[in-house]
Amino acid sequence: MIETLDDLDVEGTTVGVRVDVNSPIDDDGTLADDARLRAHVDTLSELLDRGGRVAVLAHQGRPGGDDFVSLESHADRLSELLDRPVGYVDATFTAAAREAVSGLANGDCVVLENTRFYSEEYMEFDPERAARTHLVEGLESVLDAYVNDAFAAAHRSQPSLVGLPTVLPSYAGRVMESELDVLGSIEETGEPRVYVLGGAKVPDSIDVAWSVLEKGLADHVLTAGVVGNVFLIADGVDLGDASSDFIYDQGYWDEIDRAADLLDAYGDRIAIPRDVAVDRGDDRHELGINALPPGDEEAAMDIGESTLDYYRRILADAETVILNGPAGVFEDERFETGTRQLYSAATDIPTSIVGGGDTASALRRLGIDGFSHVSTGGGAALRMLTAESLPAVTALENAPQQPAADD
Ligand SMILES: Nc1ncnc2c1ncn2[C@@H]1O[C@H](COP(=O)(O)OP(=O)(O)OP(=O)(O)O)[C@@H](O)[C@H]1O
Ligand SMILES: O=C(O)[C@H](O)COP(=O)(O)O
């Protein structure tokens, strides 16, 4: 059983709060989009308003990436969003960090440096081993409790996610709580249940498709985006050189065989596109499957009208829809139609759940809302939507309890 902020005696308690503010970064190395920070405002405000002393822990980017930057601009933006001063220290668990945390008064907040600046935080450990990392051993002595609000990182078994809850009384923050409420009860949602798998992370989507079809969670899987293109090729369609080269260059060629195996096993429950949109003479041009392959330079960038009609008919009977990944290259307005129409149709379904970073940004860009739940998580949401456990959530379940006040 996971404890929440309702179970935490906050006043005067120094709390390490793990959030997921992993965000797009501008060329100058500062925050470009604050959506993920906004998501955590309720948890942080509540802790601060209740007299907590808050040390924020988070990662940003991956080593070697252009977005692998300091959290200083995140702290500045957080201060604006929380409407109170927020400190920042360019250390995570060393003496400077511990001094900053120990110096907090009730209602104070400090952001510690990007956890992944330390190599152990980019490794995966079992919780007991994670508890013996430098980050956990360094911070343990200055924290009274740990709150995990980083649902979007909960599929990672890293020290700040599974080590701290092994040694400290631990609680789910409000984002974590609401994500677990919605995504943890997927088996209880109404049927027929339809999974829409688009976007570009083909191996992840094929894993999800296998899992939900095997477990009987999905009545239908609708494919779109690069995922749909891989299924078309697996079904024997010649998509032309441009799309085939793209799939090959992404290292996804082996996925075609896996998609073919899925079609063999569950073809009656998998829907594949009936037409695609290509870039012809700078215009969107739709081609039915029988008119393929397209010209050598013409990649399949979106699903077409006939696919949308077909998918809308399946969705019309659905009680639950789970969507991940855009239906096309929505960043180019000629190819946003599939995403716009498919996601709009999904908002009419009684339970509609959306997950994925790019997906959320597509929805914002296209101005589509009205879903039952838009998850903050990409990979984490997908893993929960296949009814599998997340290491950081298991660590919260197994965490020690806060000693009673008179202990
Ligand atoms: N037909 C296509 N050809 C090439 N790229 C495509 C196609 N359809 C969609 N995409 C691309 O897929 C990308 C998003 O896919 P991704 O799987 O990363 O989405 P997500 O699951 O929402 O994000 P994340 O898992 O990173 O949180 C977009 O950049 C979009 O342009
Ligand atoms: O953006 C995400 O999906 C999470 O922050 C996890 O990031 P990671 O995939 O780099 O571990």
From TrEMBL:
* Compartment(s): Cytoplasm
EC code(s) of this entry: 2.7.2.3
What is one term from the GO cellular component aspect held by the record?
cytosol
Name the enzyme group at the top EC level: transferase
Task: Give the superkingdom in one word.
Answer: Archaea
Q: In which pathway does it act?
A: Carbohydrate degradation; glycolysis; pyruvate from D-glyceraldehyde 3-phosphate: step 2/5
Similarity section: Belongs to the phosphoglycerate kinase family.
Assembly notes: Monomer.
Q: What is the name attached to this protein's record? A: Phosphoglycerate kinase
